Amino acid sequence: MLETIKNYSTFIDKANPLTKILLAAILFATVIFIHNPNVLFHLTILMLIALLCLSGVKIKYLVMLLIFIFISGFISSLYMIFYGEGTETLFRYGIIHITDESFVRGLHITMRGVILSLFGALVIFTTKITDVFYALMIQLKVKPKYAYSFMAAIRMVPIIVSEYFQLRQARKVRSALINKKHISGFKSLKSTIVTLLSQSIRRAYRLGIAMESKGFSDGSRTYFYKTSLSRYDLYLMLIIAAAIITAVQIGTVITPFDSTDAR
């Protein structure tokens, strides 16, 4: 699916998935402990540039994603903006009290979420789900039965969604022959869940038989796909480290916000 929305690939596509996950955890911890909104502002811009240049995704898809990310991030901070504390009042109406301090704190929370969302989107657009599980098995020595189980479960999700829509369309076609109580309300939900669950159980049983017939075991095995650490992982780590250091340095020179501590 990723190939249909991408124009080109970058070196991040070749980086180890575990490196990306580790960097996401480090970035999360770093963003949590940065209280200067100016630093977060510049880090947001740098992460946005990284997503636009290194994801390889077509611009129209990125624009839709960015609109969703920024709107969601702003909505998540409204409680802090509307009901925060402060001394310099910007707007007041009823229980809504927007102050200069609460507005900065709200934007601070927004930028935290946006930074993590932008990097998360970059990881998703440049990582195949199969590579994640192979990296877990090869680098972290996760047992194949667990990794393949999760891989198979994720592969089943699109099939279950497709079956749900097929079931829904079939009910619409046969709606004239079915009592309304069976196609609406709780009974409809119950029958839908039972149908999808029974189909999933049968599919999982067939998959288990197929894997057993092909000699699948939990012992030592070789892998068709290989994942390893390479220079591309170093490049990615250097880029993230450079982005954080650059944001910290620029944040002390170019200060869009008067506050340097949003706590």
UniProtKB/TrEMBL annotation:
Keywords: Cell membrane, Membrane, Transmembrane, Transmembrane helix
Highest taxon in the source lineage: Bacteria
Transmembrane segment boundaries: 21-49, 61-82, 103-126, 146-165, 234-257
Keyword Cell membrane attached: yes
Topology with respect to the bilayer: Multi-pass membrane protein
Membrane keyword on record: yes
Protein name per UniProt: Energy-coupling factor transport system permease protein
Native species: Jeotgalicoccus coquinae
Gene name of this polypeptide: ykoC
